[in-house]
Amino acid sequence: MAHELADDLFTQLNMGVRGLQYFMETCCPDTCVPVDLKHMALNHVKAHPDSAATIVVDGMACLRYWYRCRAWVHGGQWQEYMHILQEFIDAFTAAGIRLVFFFDGTVEEQKRAEWVKRRLRVNQDIARIFQHIKTYGQQPNSRDLFCIPSGLATFSMFALKSLGQETRCSVREGDYEISDYALSHNCLGILGQDTDFVIYNTVPYLSISKLNLNRMTTVLFSRERLCQVLKLHMTDLPLLSCLLGNDIVPEQQMQHLRNSALASYRKRNKQVQGDKVYAVAEFITVHHPRSEETFGVSSLLLAEAEEEALEKGIRTYLLPGQTSPWLKCSRPFPESVRSMDKYVPGEILQAAMEKHTRAECFLIYNVLYDGVVECSNSLEDEDEVELPPQAVLYLPVRERIYGLLLPVLPDCSGHTVSVKEWFVFPGNPLKEPTRVTPKPLNYTKESPDLMALWFRTDPEVKTVQASTLLDVFDLFEFTEELKQFDSPLIAVICLVTYIAIQARQLSLEDIDAYLSQAVCVRFKSFTEMQQLRTPVVDPRAVQLGSLFVRGLTYLIGANSACGFPFPMDELMPWKTFDGLLFHSKYLQAHSGCPKEELLEGKPSWMSLFLSIRELVLGACRRRGTPVHSRPRRLQYRDVRPVEVDDLCGERRPQLHHTTQQESRQQPAASTHYQQGYRPRPRHPKRGRYQLAPSLWSKAKF
User: Fold this and answer.
1) Contact at 8 Å (CB) between 91 and 216?
2) When you count CB atoms within 10 A of the terminal residue's CB, does the N or C end of the chain come out lower?
3) 53 and 281 Cβ atoms separated by less than 8 Å
4) Which Gene3D superfamilies match (predicted)?
């Protein structure tokens, strides 16, 4: 079932050349070759005895294949996810195959329009997910409604490193770096789900969606066979991609050419499935440069803007040393401009790039090199009027991180440096980036010396690094108090305190849910986590879970900027958070269950919980944001039964909203995001949920 689900999801999300995946699978199945990875590895080692059989893995394309946990809406089942990753690695190791993982480290501006289009489409899916939760009180059990947990790509990168795998983060287009690395290192293949890997003249492209981990088999999409079928040369494939449409050349830009080619093709051939691809291939063959007078895309007799678009698109596929008959000059694609060079010492830039490419840091490379940062979709309810989007909530943290890395004062000419943010959240149309100005820390009198934070190794610098990180979260006062706790608990205390102060609408029950979860998760085994169930899914708890996990990404970003005062692995969600566990604690806390029950009757757990709880609540009181008890109760009525929780497979009555109104104080959004963030007013019929106390007598965790 898991493989079928993954297959269906990948069918919807195929990346790369428009229509090519369908064409190869449906119209030319001979181009899709079933392969046994063990046999491939053995043959590779025989042919190349001095090198290991290595597969380069496109990590971004594998996220949905890897995240097979049944619960996904609650914030992530991180221990289970780590177990899945280990099984994946073990299967390849047993087959004699070494893996090298690549993750996208940047979004190139030439692909920005496509990135925006996809992010806005996912926003619509997320809105449907929340509507489903509000209607049925359950996680969607549909192949059309699925969203990976927030931050999964970032955390997967660090997870694989912690499991001993070679992991890399790209500094330019990820597909390009993967293809280049695989070719230059004589790798066995590329494992991913992007037809661009058919176009690149590199090693074989293997499908992650067709991977059977038990049998170690998959499908190889053969560019050689595709060329035979279409009667093209390998060097023609980049032009084919651009004429069909890809992430660089929009599909509609070459629509007129495809229509003309298709009309011409159908005059001589009967209409068949996939004839658009056949027609474009024939067009390429007919117009292939054959003389010195006609060369490059000029032989296609297109408008100047179209020629430029095609040349730009073709050039992106050329690996070092490769040429194309469709280009007047096969020069390499220009490197990205380093716009922040003049503000940062060369040693810092070099260290940032090295740590970035080795997947050892987060966020700082993007800030220091081109000053552009992006954040993809989070599970956020567009109708939520109390909790601000994560982009707004964590803006002060990002401003202070930028202030650590870049100048906070104008230069001699009066110019103030800023970082361009492309952050996805409900209400942001993503028409242009938001410019965010670096801000100084609140408590540190002088801006910390970045060279000292990054390169000093004496014991005293650790204290400075840690206090600087706390100052980034405006929690400098915790510097001494937190020394008694380990890194995972410090991470939780920081984030929960920060969320409570910034959002200003967290209740005592929310705090108890966050903190009891953080204590309990430390002592639960992977087997115990697998037994967790919740009787209902609450939309507010979903957003709170997502808000915490997204906060962990900013915490590791701050840790990177401050010189790593804490081990990165200690700040990861598998050490601090479990979605189902948090959800169950949230429902328990808001049902009024005793603290002893929240901490599962363990005195030592209760003692730890009470100590960190007092720290958090004390900090909130000192900041003028005391936290009060405001239980949110859930109520059921006997109506048409529905499948409420696909995790349990039980049938429960349908959830409905009460009509009780409550005025809500709206947290003030920073002026940077006021244009984008417009919380919707509460519908007059939309009230709070209420949970009948008798429900909890039946609930099992």
Assistant:
1) yes
2) N
3) no
4) 5'-nuclease
Q: Check pLDDT > 90 for residue 683.
A: no
Task: State the Cα–Cα distance between residues 577 and 111, nearest whole angstrom.
Answer: 34
Instruction: Kindly state the average pLDDT of the residues 694-698.
Output: 30
Assign 3-state DSSP to the chain and report helix, strand, coil percentages, each to 5. 50, 10, 40
Q: Are 97 and 163 in contact (CB under 8 A)?
A: no
Residue owning tokens 């990168």: 157
Copy the structure tokens of residue 156. Answer: 């997967």
pLDDT at 293: 54
491 within 8 A of 557, measured Cβ to Cβ: no
Assign 74 to helix, strand or coil.
coil
Residue 38 CB burial class (10 angstroms; 0-12, 13-18, ≥19): middle
Instruction: Output the six-digit token pair for 53.
Output: 């059989």
List the one residue out of 16, 32, 34 whose CA is nearest residue 24: 32
The answer for residues whose C-beta is within 8 angstroms of residue 679's C-beta and 6 or more apart is 384, 385, 388, 427, 666
Q: How far is CA 297 from CA 316, 337, 539, 609, in A?
A: 15, 27, 53, 68
Three-state secondary structure of 469-485: HHHHCCCHHHCCHHHHC
The answer to whether the beta carbons of residues 475 and 494 sit under 8 Å apart is yes
**Cα Rg of the chain, angstroms:** 27
DSSP secondary structure string for all residues of 572-626: SHHHH--HHHHHHHHHHHHTT--HHHHTTT-HHHHHHHHHHHHHHHHHHHHTT--
Is 507 in contact with 627 (CB distance < 8 Å)? yes
Contact present, 254 and 242 (Cβ < 8 Å):
yes
Buried b (16+ CB within 10 A) or exposed e, 238-262: bbbbbbbbbbbbeeebbeebbeebb
Q: Which two tokens stand for residue 521?
A: 């998760």
Closest of 59, 417, 45 to residue 208, by C-alpha? 59
Helical axes 2-13 vs 59-66, angle rounded to 10°: 140
Pairwise CA distance, residues 16 & 237, whole Å: 13
What's the pTM?
0.88
Q: Which position has the token pair 């049902």? A: 591
Separation of alpha carbons 232 and 13, rounded Å: 27
- Amino acid of residue 254: M
Contact 378, 550 (CB under 8 A): yes
CA distance 585 to 492: 15
Q: What is the spatial distance between Cα 149 and Cα 397, in angstroms, rounded to a whole number?
A: 22
Q: What is the Cβ-side half-sphere exposure of residue 400, based on CA atoms within 13 angstroms?
A: 23
- Specify the 3-state DSSP secondary structure of 644: strand
Q: How confident is the model at residue 340 (pLDDT cuts 50, 70, 90)?
A: confident
Predicted confidence (pLDDT) per residue in 553-569, tens digit: 999 999 999 999 999 99
Q: 676: which 2 tokens?
A: 């984008």
Reported as a single tens digit per residue, the pLDDT across 155-186 is 999 999 999 999 999 999 999 999 999 999 99
Q: Please tell me the distance from the alpha carbon of residue 679 to that of residue 378, in angstroms, as a whole number.
A: 16
Query: What is the predicted pLDDT for the residue at 332?
Result: 57
Strands 54-58 and 98-103: parallel
Ramachandran assignment for 265, one of left (phi > 0), alpha (psi -120 to 50 degrees), beta (any other): alpha
Strand partners, 17: none
Q: Between β-strands 98-103 and 166-169, what pairing exists: parallel, antiparallel or unpaired?
A: parallel
> What is the structure's pLDDT at 659?
34
List the one residue out of 437, 448, 502, 505 whose CA is nearest residue 471: 448
Query: Rounded to an integer, what is the distance from CA 368 to the centroid of its chain?
Result: 21
**Cβ 26 vs Cβ 273: under 8 Å:** yes
